[in-house]
User: What shape does this take?
Amino acid sequence: MEGNIERIKCLIIGSGPAGYAAAIYAARADLKPVVYTGMQMGGQLTTTTEVDNYPGYPNGTDGTAMMEDFKNQAERFGTDVRFGMATKVDFSEEVGGIHKVTIDESKVVEAETVIISTGATAKYLGLESEQRLIGGGVSACATCDGFFYKGQDVVVIGAGDTAAEEATYLANICRKVTILVRKDYMRASKAMQHRVNKTENIEVMFNTELDEVLGDQTVEGVRIFNNITDERSELDVTGVFVAIGHKPNTEIFKGIIDMDEVGYLQTKGKSTKTNVPGVFAAGDVQDKEYRQAITAAGTGCMAALDSERYLGALQ
Ligand code: NDP
Assistant: This one.
């Protein structure tokens, strides 16, 4: 392993809006950042089609193209973007200590600061038809994709705050929104349920689950079943929004970086500082509340500034 060790100032793990925004700022501050992209280069946005809500793109843009722009901008200032997965971390607990991160189980990068922007992954049900039609009418993000279903009928799957919020958001755009709830109650907060109940074009179907998404290239409907009576029926919808939660990508930080019960990394106050000096967290990996590209990019910028200040204070 000896010859396979590299020492750098700033390592950024993850290549979504948070990682690249951090890279742009860190590169301009001369921290010579290295970004390891993870398996999904560009992050979650590359799984959506159009992005219409990111300021600066008046005509909207394609999620993948937008992340290519982010990458190009980071590279323009000297960021070294590499394809690879962080598979193990050995963080120093000392202020000014060196953090070791193993990439692809082989190479070790030693870094003075680390910015974790590994994001979160939307959970899906796992049905073959659902997986096949992701991007073709199946989505896990109403704020990203809802607009494309203007005046149409859609279903939302889930019963938590996200499902309730996505359904009320979609109800403003779509003709009808049906929420499929597998139990006989919703887990969402009372306030959110109240909003759902008083929205005229939302129907909640309890004890109801998705059996199959219908359609070859795009969603043409769904087959559902009542899990008490086993009765099957079809709904004529063009959009399927899966809102059954997200999983932060934080496996390798367990027991090292403070996280909440679900695994979201915890940051201090309004900063991106974690419990480990010199290790910062930005983007969805530390945010279960907003989860937008713009908010992720904002915290990426903060993490680079926090890194710069941390290194500056050591001198
Ligand atoms: P949750 O984990 O709270 O809810 C997930 C929901 O998905 C549950 O109702 C669960 O059903 C359902 N579900 C899970 N798996 C399946 C499945 N296979 N089939 C059908 N349904 C399934 O996730 P959320 O994303 O809703 O919320 C995460 C956190 O973020 C929560 O703490 C929430 O309060 C918070 N949040 C807050 C918001 C706000 O305050 N504005 C907005 C959005 C989220 P079941 O109940 O049967 O287990």
Observations:
- The chain has seven helices and 19 strands.
- Residues 73 and 112 are 23 Å apart (CA to CA).
- Residues 293-314 form the longest helix (22 residues).
- The chain has a mean pLDDT of 95.
